[in-house]
Specification:
With 270 residues, the chain is an alpha/beta fold. The protein is built from ten helices and eleven strands. The chain has a seven-stranded parallel β-sheet with strand order 3-2-1-4-6-7-11, sandwiched between helices. The longest helix has 20 residues.
Length: 270
């Protein structure tokens, strides 16, 4: 039986990238999609490109009160239906090394990439457990498996998302509530282009860093990544690796758990 068809499919960060592709593909597969983001214009584009049942909801996942109101409204409206919650919303930060990164920038990223996941899960999980059904999908990153230089805030958030999800998998093992963690490699989205440039980094330097990253790292389309995530949901995969780069770095971390940082330093000529 399809997990997607007929579900209430909530996806954060649906105004662009993987979130948009997930919303469009899930709607086409027969889900009742609730596409959320802070970017209303981007959400309108997502809606216009989609077929099937899809509605938009302006939501800032860094705002606890907004999440509470949103969850109460959606649960009341779809009380007896099966939920799939995809915590996809995320931002990037180009701020240099940890020593160069301000705590203000660090906290800003964590409030979205980590606390957004935690708050959304808290808002919906009790309902899912009560009805003993549903699926929560938390989007981490390959940077949540291996730490990379110049990404201290991003990697901290994504490692924490993985750890948080692993705890939930254990706590819910005797229920029918499923938890999946997604670890994409380099995906062609606008997250790097739209990233915040750190307070300690000038705009020209930050733009050059973004352009180098996009040329070197972004390989797979958002549409293909979304297809693989939906396939992972259908198959109840607890961990979904996206891309050859993600699989390669995951293997390096598993083979060299204590020294992979030295291996990566040689691979990337650091």
């Amino acid at each position: 039986m399809s997990q997607i068809k007929g579900s209430v499919f909530i996806v954060t960060g649906a105004a662009s990238g993987i979130g948009r592709a997930l919303a469009i593909q899930a709607a086409a597969a027969g889900a009742k999609v609730i596409a959320t983001d802070v970017n209303e214009a981007g959400l309108e584009e997502t809606i216009n490109q989609a077929t099937g049942t899809i509605e938009k909801y302006i939501l800032d996942v860094s705002d606890a009160e907004q999440i509470k109101v949103f969850a109460n409204e959606i649960i009341k409206k779809h009380f007896h239906e099966r939920f799939i919650l995809v915590n996809n919303a995320g931002v990037a930060l180009f701020s240099g090394s940890f020593l160069e990164t301000s705590l203000t920038d660090f906290e800003w990223l964590l409030s979205i990439n980590l606390w957004g996941v935690i708050r959304m899960t808290k808002a919906f999980l009790r309902h899912l457990v009560k009805h003993n059904q549903g699926h929560i999908v938390n989007v981490s990153s390959i940077f949540g498996i291996v730490g990379m230089p110049q990404n201290s805030a991003y990697s901290t958030a994504k490692f924490a998302v993985k750890g948080f999800s692993d705890v939930l998998k254990l706590e819910l093992v005797k229920t029918n509530v499923k938890i999946s963690t997604v670890h994409p490699g380099g995906i062609k989205t606008g997250i790097a282009r739209n990233s915040r440039k750190g307070h300690n980094r000038d705009n020209e330097e930050g733009q050059k860093a973004v352009e180098r990253f996009e040329r070197a790292a972004l390989k797979m389309s958002a549409e293909k990544a979304a297809y693989m995530i939906l396939d992972g949901i259908e198959k109840d995969k607890p961990r979904i690796l996206i891309g050859n780069d993600a699989r390669t770095l995951d293997m390096v971390a598993r083979v060299f758990p204590n020294t992979y940082h030295k291996v990566l330093a040689k691979m990337f000529k650091l």
